Records
---
Amino acid sequence: MLDVQGLRKEYGELVAVRDIRFQLYPGDVFGFIGPNGAGKTTTIKMLATLLEPTAGTATLNGIDIVRHPEEVRPLLGYMPDFFGLYEGITVTEYLEFFAAAYRIPKAQRAAIIDNVLELTDLTVKKDAYVETLSRGMQQRLCLAKSLVHDPILLLLDEPASGLDPRARIEIKELIRELGAMGKIVLVSSHILPELADFCNKIGIIEKGELLVWGAVDEIVQQLQANRVLEIRPLGEPDALIQRLERESHVHGVETRNGSLYVHFAGGLEEQADLLAALIRDGYRIAAFREESLDLEDVFMQITKGEVS
Amino acid sequence: MRALRENPLLRYHLLGATRHRWRRQPWLYGAAVLGIGLVYLLVLQLTVFNEASIYATLGLALFVMCIAAPLMAYNLFSLEYEKQTWESLALTRLTAREIFWGKYGAALARVALTTLLFAPFLLTTHSATTYVIAAAFTVLFSWGALLVSVGLWLSFKLKRTLTTAATLYAGQVFVLLLFPFLYLLFSGGSDPSTSTIEGVQSYRDGMLAWVASLFEGTLIIFANPFYLASQLNDLSVRPSWWWGSTDWDAYVNGLRYMLWGFAQSAMYLGLGAMFAGFAYRGVKISWRK
């Protein structure tokens, strides 16, 4: 379990990360969302033990990352947003290098390397020189390197940046698989559709502050307390608009492309009552539906577009 | 010893990165090896047939070391920063000691190899005594070790490969050329060595002479490896221009009592250890190892 408690990082006057708290469990794939400069990378670097927090701490399976970085490091795999690879060696030699650096016994190395190559779909490239791989393959190799020591926590900072659509899909599949293997995966991105597919939890950070975190469904549900209803009336909408504005749960009505978008503060019961009332009052409704929120809507509702 | 024996980083720097360079530009490296090989054999032949002095052979070896040693260490840490590989390395279970020795050990091994390359020159030097040859080997290796130590530290500190290389070469120009030139300019152009060294009559005097040279500024001259090589020459043969105004035997004994060559080597190694220590400490602290 990863337990983050009041993690804070200050650079002089600037507070890059402000008292962040969250907990993740094995199998969680946590999407860490925020605009550029929000503090995602700083948080990840603190969790990766590369940066010392100004205050607060985090524990991984009970081990304090601030006080015992050397004990935590074998338990985590880290893929930075900008990374390089050692050149002049083959893919297998590269993984052997890291297997040796993680003190994996010699006898076990070949089998482990075969496994991670298979998992990252790089088996066919095992004898290729590292610098000859495409960007997507290098990304997968970097991930393979982060897996040789079988970490329980994976910190992936913008893993799909700079990849073509196919490589993006492949890396998404891989991350989903890692979550299914029971690893805690923390993956940061500012491209939301990228995360929506495979994260079961998200955290939205802005200006160094974690505005919201939790299961994706729960967050969407919380935000849908203020839902938007799309109503397509037949005929002139003016009378219907006036009728809707008299409703206590309605905070506003917008008209777009012949549809009315109603900002509605009620729950599902009130929503059903509204539809019944409109039909009873003789309004002819061609369509009545609730606009569902996706991760982008959630992000837009929560954030203000500020950086720390 | 584990820091050297089971060190993947040392193996990478000695074999992986080297193989990479050869493989990338095989024609360039092939031509360079062939060219350098021919020049090497030619110069060796000239050395043997022309009875070259230790000043010529050690001077040549030092010149090559001054050019080559910075190239052995200038990118050891800076490339980790430039290629963004240091974070991955820092997170492994390699200790700061292993990371340090992986890089420093590779650089020292190359310095040792360069020293060995010059063994035929030094060993065939005309009328050089065992003392002079031993001192020449020690000076050559320790000067190279000092350069790679400074290079390693600068590479860590500056984090830029080109800046490190430029600083190393510019630094050598200052230390080897400009500082001695300025000393001679302000001392009226007189050679500081003869009178000082003549007066050294025991090892105790020798030690005191070194301490005094530190305060008098003559250390800038005494510790210059090229100047040192010229004095080593005096330990081998009496030059034809010696007019007898100085007691030659006293002068040569003075050099021996000052452990000429070995003392400077100890200084180079001491300074090298200090810079290497800075680099090690840097890894330990800033990589949280």
---
Amino acid sequence: MKKTKQLFAGLTLLASSQQGAQADYTLNLMEGITKVSNHIYDLHMLILWICVFIGIAVFGTMFYSIFHHRKSKGHKAAQFHENTTVEIIWTIIPTLILVAMAIPATKAVIELDDVQDSEMSIKVTGKQWYWDYQYLDNGIKFESHLDEASEKAHRLANGNPHSVPHYLLNVDKPLVVPVNKKIRFVFTAADVIHSWWVPELGWKKDANPGFINEAWTYVPKAGTYRGQCTELCGRDHGFMPIVVIAMEQPDYDAWVKKTLAKQQEAVDLSDLSREDLMSKGASMYLKNCVACHQINGSGITGTYPALTASLRVTGPIDPLIGFIQAGTSRMPAFSKLKDDELAALITYIRNAPELGNSVGDEIQPKAITPVYDD
Amino acid sequence: MSAVVAEHDDHHDDHDHGPAKGILRWIITTNHKDIGTLYLLFALAMFFVGGSMAMIIRAELFEPGMQFVDPQFFNSMTTMHALVMVFGAVMPAFVGLANWMIPMMIGAPDMALPRMNNMSFWLLVAGVLMLASTLFMEGGAPAGGWTLYPPLVLQTGKAFPFAVFSVHLLGISSIMGAINIIATILNMRAPAMTLMKMPLFVWTWLITGFLLIAIMPVFAGAVTMLLTDKFFHTSFFDAAGGGDPVLYQHIFWFFGHPEVYVMILPTFGVASTIIPVFARKPLFGYSSMVYATASIAFLSFIVWAHHMFTVGMPLAGELYFMYATMLIAIPTGVKVFNWTATMWKGSMTFETPMLFSIAFVVLFTLGGFTGLMMSIAPVDFQYHDTYFIVAHFHYTLVPASVFILMAAGYYWLPKWTGHMYNEKIGQLHFWLSTVSVNILFFPQHFLGLAGMPRRIPDYAIQFADWNMISSIGGFIFGASQLLFLYIVIDTIRGGTGEKVTDEVWEDAHKHGLEWTLPSPVPYHTFTTPPAVIPTEHI
Amino acid sequence: MSTNDAYYIPHKATWPIVGTSGLMIMLAGVANFLNGSPIGTTMIYVGLLMFIVMLGGWFALQSVESETGMYNHGVGISYRMGMMWFIFSEIMFFAVFFGTLWYTRNLSVPWLGGEGAKAATQQILWPAFEATWPTNGPGKVGGEFEPMGAWGLPFLNTLILLTSGVTCTWAHHGLLAKKRDQLIKGLLATVGLGFLFVAFQAIEYHEAYTEMGLTLGSGIYGSTFFMLTGFHGFHVCVGAIILSVVLFRSWKGHFQPENHFAFEAAAWYWHFVDVVWLGLFIFVYLM
Ligand code: HEA
Ligand code: HEA
Ligand code: CUA
Ligand SMILES: [Cu+2]
């Protein structure tokens, strides 16, 4: 025990000396930034200390006896084997300790449960493998995927996670919320169970398909807060992070205005250069397709077909558009892709050297005919 | 086959039967010692299989970035590691100990239902084989975690129905084994062996047997509903049809929580058997140990949803399950205090079994403390599904259950084989294991608190250092277990060459009937019940 | 209480490995069948055959041993305990499905309908859904259906099973009073009623599928209805088969008033099946 403690002290030093860039790391639970998270932190510390004290008492007694009551020191064994008084004492004392813990814990549970009087609501839908956010009060709606740099770093054999800022904890479109407002979240899922967790807010909540769970937060301080999906949801469960940006009210209002305006813009159907098509296509591919068909288009034998040299990919365009928009029983439908996005995506999968395809054509947004509507 | 059958007549007779010859001996045996050996060896093999999967997990988590395996395969490894360890290693190992020791501890000639005993073992093998076969199937082995939550688990490929049926086989095996153990304990005791004279290992197994019979059918029912949801259009776990995916979790944990006590109660029993021998004192508080065990078993049925604090239960449910779970600390505390009091003013020596037992008391309590922390619902909102939980349950499983299994191995091997193990290597194994298991699992507390979710194949850079340390600890721990393998083989083949006495450990005859028998134990023991019962603990 | 002097311990057992292999092959066959693999059916037949041979062989062995007096009192107690705990495990198995029925009726369906803290579930996801029972859920899974009434065949079946419980006990009295004639008649009646029950249930299922639109796929009502009654019906079949074996042995002159474990086991099992049906009748059909 002593040895292990020394060892840990050593290891701790070792570890702390190595931490440079990502220094916001602690050995203990994060205190978080909300009131609730602080209450939880206090509870955590309370119980931790109680356990430490009980541990010292019990292990202390035990090690005292291990050192002194040993045969090699000539200690003769006593033969007592019962004592009702001490047994009652050591039943009652822990009971009282537990009661003492239960009181603040009960308060915290009740506090967390209360979603009344919220000032805005956000619907969060977990999907394999990204988050879908919908602001119920103003109609803003977007998907939040793992950012491209992390995506590439973890999928490519020669990717280097250390070079990616906030590796696996960064998204393309973060959730933006105002500070000092009681925000209600409603959670659900489209396919399997996911769980939404931002440690600094102090809680996680499961997103169950077919049901709504509610939770709330009140962010007192502007900043960027990161978290992850915490319910195993399949292959890419480790790759669906959460980023929440809390803004002062004016900044938030400006963001809402800008986002709404962009959301209402009609799809730009003007022609794009080949470079634009390919780069936009690549990012669409990374966002939507890579989880199954893989970064090099190889798919997974027996589960997901390869796109490399697939006749469907390199063949006629209209059926391909229809296929991607409609999906199958095993592949999700991608009717959500806009015409320009789809054009870029298709150009990309037909021509990307990474995928090993080179049909040599370009598909412009205008060429996308509505084959399938949702 | 007929040749062997001809060797015996099928009638009952009292003279000593030797075992059948060759491999067939093991396939058709009804002898509790043979079956115990089969269970123990099978469990040891599965410990290495499950451990190898853990090594794959730790290798992938050694550094950030994906190095060795596909994420889907990683999830399969997590799932299979847990299933193999729980159903293939730890549970069978305790059934093996029960088979070997219970008849000898209570003065019975064999198990109550010897033919069924044989079938329990082979069904276990069948179940594990079927589970293992899923590794080679289209779509890969189950990858939804050992909890098999729908709807995710319904996305499993061809492996799905095989996994379900393997659970059925394992369930039937466990139920048969448990029925046998209960019938043996209740019906086969020597005349003087009253219930309150039984060694605690026997007591804990009596209660564990009850747990098993109560919960294995529940798990079987749950996976049956998964099967019909997937293949027969039922809607048990589908909201569109009026069902609820969370319902599965309730059923699973109604099974799953008692299940973890199935792995810890016999552990307590073995510890309560070993510690007094090396403290040279009777066990402190024998009857309170019995009552504490029973209370833990009772409580285990009414606390299941502490695994589900974040699923969105109503407030009252949240509070109830929090309070109920906290209560378990009381009877468990009684046990810890009693072990301490047993050592107090003893005359202790520290042979390998005792060393492992002491490490068990300390490290299990650590795992218990984190369990208590997680039982506080609001705080579990932070801990849930992070490495903090992984640390918690490995502390209660590896340096608790597995360590005690090692202790039991060292403690009884001389009795089983008649040879003494090599104490030096045993102690080396102990120190390597104890140090490395802490390097392996202690840092996982830090990882969890800092925000690393469990069941992920890759992680953010700030988790890199502790993961690397944990992996290194894991490799050392894994490699150390090769020493145990060596010791077991070496002891079977002659060990130190020293002739062990019947008693093996000083004054052990005061603590259990098995030490009144010759070492190695003859093939049949207690064909006539013993007259005198050791009464140290009364 | 000691019972282990001259406790019978067989020295080898060949049936367990046969049975285990049979069961494994059969289950692997079912799995293959579900996966659409053609070898599935063959494996099911082979496995089932092995399993049946095992049952026949093992039971024959036990009955020979029993009749030749190899089991003393202690062995009998072990067997009784074994059977009691086996029935307990069966009770837990049924408890899962009763629990499921309770949970869905009292929790998940009302939640989907917006009750309690889950108002948002209905508002946001299932605005058109109203919680009622029976239901096939907000997705109207499986389409329109008619729920199963209690007072037709199900009630008749209740009477049949209750009567069969009585005839079974009557047979037991016959056995105890050494009235072999009464024993055989009672068993005949019990087995007959058992199979009659199964036949009526088959008719009920047929009606449900063909006329009422009620199937396993009819949402949660169909799921719970068929799983509960289906597993029960399966247990009635098994019980009736065991009783048939007991009947056959009685007819061959087996069993003594002081030694008839097989009869007792079969009777316990039958009463257990009976009680489960009462639970079903109340919770599935009546409420
Ligand atoms: C052998 C296995 C074992 C054992 C013994 C335990 C013991 C306990 N466990 Fe653990 N647990 C698991 C195996 C085990 N657990 C596993 C495998 C999981 C994860 C499953 C999964 O998700 O995959 C899990 C998960 C788990 C959770 C869910 C966490 C989550 O997912 O969010 C919780 C929450 O309450 C919990 C609580 C407890 C408690 C309160 C005990 C108590 O029994 C502990 C009691 C012991 C003590 C408290 C120490 C000794 C007592 C004293 C010295 C007395 C004085 C003490 C005080 C008054 C403080 N466990
Ligand atoms: C009794 C149960 C038991 C046991 C004994 C263990 C033992 C170990 N476990 Fe296990 N584990 C679980 C039960 C158990 N575990 C459960 C229930 C889960 C949850 C699963 C889920 O989330 O669904 C889990 C999950 C789990 C995880 C989390 C995975 C994830 O969330 O993705 C990790 C990661 O470190 C881990 C590691 C280990 C290690 C290193 C050991 C070691 O103790 C193993 C040591 C043994 C050996 C290593 C074998 C012996 C040696 C050799 C084979 C020689 C070769 C050696 C080398 C090459 C070094 N386990
Ligand atoms: Cu989504 Cu894990
Ligand atoms: Cu639990």
